[in-house]
Amino acid sequence: MRDILLTGASGFLGSIILKELGAENVITLGRSKSDIVINLDLDVPVIPVMKTIIHCIGKAHAVPKNALQKQEFFNVNVTGTLNLLRAIENSNSLPKSFVFISSVAVYGKESGLLIQEESPLEAKDAYGLSKIQAERIIQQWCSQNNVICTILRLPLLAGPNPPGNLGNMISAIRRGYYFDISGGTAKKSIVLAKDVARIIKKAADRGGIYNLTDGYHPSFSELSLEISRQLNKRKPLNMPKFIAYILSLAGDVIGGAAPINTKKLNKITSDLTFDDSKAKQILDWTPNSVLSNFQIK
After folding, report:
1. What is the CATH number of domain 4-158+191-214+274-288?
2. For the chain, what are the domain ranges?
3. What range(s) does the NAD-dependent epimerase/dehydratase domain occupy (predicted)?
């Protein structure tokens, strides 16, 4: 009997979660290739009674260029969440647990070391703000309906053909135009998507808010070296920071088409890591090292 509803099962993380849970145990919901095909930010679906809801649908990995594109984050991440909750209420039976896939973007930090779950949520960008709103809506709804609430705040995700910044890094190395900046020493939190999928069931039963990382937080140079090794490419060259800074100033003038600007430069030369000790203590979270287990394909 299928007692889990998974939204976004055709996406990068959703597909890995579906494989881990077993398709025979899950009803999927999404815009395509799902048991329930619907645009969640436009319509309220009809869903069967479910024991566990895993809400993985979300808009990310895009830099909005105008107000309409910014609004799209709220349409998908906030309105879509509200419509899912309405669908649950319409099913006339509440689930035991609700798991929401969120992001460390809610903290709004561009630098920092081992940021904890209790840190203030200070995101100012559309993506981070929409995730904050969705988290609060879900927390309030679960509290009112006595449903176990789990929120997983994820950093950079690693796995086969990853999206976002890691995917862009792989593409640049494959094409031969990637450079480590200032030695690539900045450390970033990252986690294997497969490890996230493996902890879902335990997290759903326990509830709570958790950062999930691989516990090591590799540097850009470590990541680029491992990616280059897998692609049989030479070790990426290093670009001194003063050259990158000059290029970033030009990027500020050129605008969105530029590969780098001062904001991007600050991000890729600053440490930004998150503390997963709460997950280790409560969920017995034992992540694998991304550098040792990440496979590009």
Report:
1. 3.40.50.720
2. 4-158+191-214+274-288
3. 4-211
